[in-house]
């Protein structure tokens, strides 16, 4: 068995028997999770449980409780002394369950054997209602990605309507949004000290519902009062106006409180804690995780765990601010880095795991190459409202030096027994290409590119240009496509010089706000000229609390309030998606008809040359050839934890 070297008591308890093995007669906190229990720092319920345990609390986890029938899983551990905690899992449950076309995914990556029937839709709401029914007087705390992204009025793609603050549907007492280590300890302290539930309303990084006269310190001029939920239902433009404030305050060092009326109450979002220090982050990662699934799963495969089993997360946060991504909404834009010592300790722990063969699958984070980067003048950062430090241009105050990251790579590779460490997280090539006034930093960027390509790529380097149209890329908050072309030239040159034959794998999205059929036709032409047959593609999926989603739903850019076209119907989406697959004979006729319809018949010869036989040119020797997976499950965006790789949006410590 994979975890045979550990005893049952090395894991947080999940049953009455395991509680008795510890000699406990009462629990302080019981956590309910929509995911399987994997005792690993990339799985949020495990992190919160270990944080509370380290503070002296008696904690248990109930993973994937059965919500049918007599609710025995909700009763089996009884009543906690302090509170119930609920996390739906590492992903928003609906993104986890359905594709952009609302089809069931091929598997649930966070469930043993990928089963689909182990969690409900919207588990936060379902679990909360059951617990409130069974234990009406026990406090309920909501956390995880689902609560973070649904803390105010938000568009729900799967219900196709605006939904209010999650607390309106889930009868809980409070939301702990974002990365919850500090908040959960303060919540536990308040309740342990016998303070009333209302005392929790004074804590940073929480959301609560209250009547106007119950709002802590009342509504002041320093608060940002958003348009009410009801106003947003009536006027989409007001929803767009709201979102600019929501995103800006999510990414500020010193944010303002947000207040939104909903019915006869107000949703109050207290500002977040400052970013964790290196010492605080180390303390979280250095907890006694077994790094393995609970023994109850025996040899069942948990897909998400298999992906990150031998990976190490080296930092938290992302200042990219991509319009379709939720990472900054959950983790913030400021980078919190682990110390080299903490990273090396975890690498050595990975080396001791069963089945380890000398290869670290990923030394990464939300983005692969932001480790150690921050503003040179932190006073300027404390006043900054920009949701992205690198769009529309890289901030001149941002230190883009890759030296500290190079030191991490080299220190890991120098450990006896490490054959190779790979970088599976997405690489920001715009940071590599950036020319700052600091020549040492520029030199380190080129040194990083060579080290990355020659020593840390397992044959395929994944990057995310996302589109080729400058207009669409502007709305995505991504760099111009010419930068991808520049980086590809560097990649190809270094491969030639090092006598390597590696591939660069680009990610692309269709149907993003602002994208029209002609943009997709141009994407097909440009990528074909670069000899790509695309593999990592997907339709845009609207997920709560992203700029792209608000633009898609409202029809307005939240920052300019200008109208933006979006493909909404299935017909419009399929018309865009087909251009990814220009090389498939069965798509040719439809593409030709579409090109004529949009007045771009001039592109037919380039995309669909010749007739009969094989109309496509042979791939040049040594050039990468990319097959296409016509599978909506293959790539998913958003919704941002783990170590990177293909879970870029799906698995980023989203707890």
Distance between the termini: 28 Å
Task: Tally the helices.
Answer: 24
Q: Find the structural class using helix and strand composition.
A: alpha/beta
Oligomer: single chain
Kindly provide the radius of gyration, computed on alpha-carbon positions and rounded to a whole number of angstroms: 25 Å
Task: Please give the number of β-strands.
Answer: 22
Helical content band? 25-40%
Broad shape: globular
Mean pLDDT: 91
With strands numbered from the N-terminus, the spatial order across the biggest sheet is 3-1-4-5-8-9-12-11-10
Tell me the strand percentage band: 5-15%
Largest beta-sheet details: 9 strands, mixed
List the uncertain runs: 611-655
Describe it for me?
The structure is a single chain. With 655 residues, the chain is α/β, with parallel strands linked by helices. The chain is built from 24 helices and 22 strands. The strands form seven sheets. A nine-stranded mixed sheet has the order 3-1-4-5-8-9-12-11-10, with helices on both faces. Helix 2 packs across helix 7, helix 9 (236-250) runs antiparallel to helix 21 and helix 17 crosses helix 19. The longest helix is centred in the C-terminal third of the chain and has 17 residues, at 439-455. 51% of the residues are buried. Its cofactor is [4Fe-4S] cluster. Residues 606-655 are annotated as: Disordered.
């Amino acid at each position: 068995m994979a975890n045979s070297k550990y005893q049952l008591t090395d894991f947080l308890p999940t049953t009455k028997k395991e509680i008795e093995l510890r000699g406990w007669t009462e629990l302080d906190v019981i956590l309910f999770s929509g995911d399987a229990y994997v005792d690993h720092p990339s799985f949020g319920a495990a992190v919160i449980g270990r944080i509370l345990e380290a503070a002296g609390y008696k904690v248990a986890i109930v993973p994937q409780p059965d919500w049918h029938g007599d609710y025995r899983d909700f009763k089996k551990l009884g009543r906690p002394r302090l509170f119930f905690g609920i996390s739906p899992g590492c992903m928003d449950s609906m993104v986890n369950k359905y594709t952009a076309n609302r089809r069931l995914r091929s598997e649930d990556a966070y469930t043993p054997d990928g089963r689909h029937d182990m969690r409900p839709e919207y588990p936060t709401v379902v679990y909360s209602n059951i617990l409130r029914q069974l234990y009406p007087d026990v406090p309920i705390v909501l956390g995880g990605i689902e609560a973070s992204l649904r803390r105010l009025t938000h568009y729900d793609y799967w219900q196709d309507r605006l939904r209010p603050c999650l607390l309106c549907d889930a009868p809980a007492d409070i939301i702990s949004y974002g990365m919850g280590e500090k908040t959960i300890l303060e919540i536990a302290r308040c309740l342990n000290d016998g303070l009333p539930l209302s005392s929790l309303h004074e804590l940073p990084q929480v959301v609560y519902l209250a009547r106007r006269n119950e709002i802590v310190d009342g509504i002041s001029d320093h608060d940002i009062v958003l348009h009410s939920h009801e106003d947003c239902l009536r006027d989409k433009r007001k929803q767009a106006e709201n979102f600019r404030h929501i995103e800006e305050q999510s990414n500020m060092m010193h944010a303002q409180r947000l207040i939104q009326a909903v019915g006869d109450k107000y949703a109050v979002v207290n500002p977040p804690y400052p970013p964790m220090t290196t010492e605080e982050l180390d303390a979280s990662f250095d907890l006694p995780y077994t790094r393995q699934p609970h023994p109850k799963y025996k040899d069942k495969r948990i897909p998400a765990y298999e992906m990150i089993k031998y990976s190490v997360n080296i930092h938290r946060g992302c200042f990219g601010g991509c319009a379709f991504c939720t990472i900054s909404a959950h983790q913030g834009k400021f980078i919190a880095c682990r110390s080299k010592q903490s990273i090396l300790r975890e690498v050595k722990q990975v080396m001791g795991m069963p089945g380890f063969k000398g290869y670290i699958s990923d030394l990464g984070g939300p983005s692969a190459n932001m480790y150690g980067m921050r503003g040179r003048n932190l006073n300027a950062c404390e006043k900054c409202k920009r949701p992205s430090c690198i769009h529309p241009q890289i901030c001149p105050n941002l230190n883009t030096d890759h030296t500290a990251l190079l030191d991490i790579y080299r220190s890991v590779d120098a450990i006896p027994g490490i054959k190779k460490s790979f970088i599976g997280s997405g690489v920001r090539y715009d940071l590599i290409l950036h020319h700052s006034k600091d020549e040492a930093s520029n030199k380190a960027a080129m040194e990083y590119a060579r080290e990355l390509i020659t020593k840390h790529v397992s044959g395929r380097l994944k990057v995310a240009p996302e589109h080729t149209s400058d207009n669409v890329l502007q709305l995505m908050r991504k760099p111009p496509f010419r930068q991808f072309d520049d980086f590809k030239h560097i990649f190809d040159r270094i491969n030639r010089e090092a006598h390597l034959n590696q591939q660069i794998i680009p990610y692309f999205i269709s149907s993003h706000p602002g994208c029209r059929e002609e943009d997709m036709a141009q994407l097909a032409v440009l990528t074909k000229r670069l000899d790509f047959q695309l593999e990592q593609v997907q339709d845009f999926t609207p997920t709560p609390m992203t700029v792209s989603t608000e633009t898609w739903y409202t029809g307005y850019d939240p920052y300019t309030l200008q109208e933006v076209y979006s493909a909404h119907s299935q017909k419009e989406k399929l018309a865009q998606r087909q251009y990814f697959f220009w090389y498939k004979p069965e798509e040719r006729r439809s593409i030709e008809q579409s090109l004529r319809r949009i007045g771009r018949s001039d592109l037919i010869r380039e995309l669909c040359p010749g007739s009969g036989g094989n109309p496509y040119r042979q791939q040049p020797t040594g050039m990468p050839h990319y097959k296409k997976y016509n599978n909506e499950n293959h790539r998913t965006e958003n919704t941002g934890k783990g170590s990177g790789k293909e879970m870029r949006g799906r698995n980023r410590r989203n707890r």
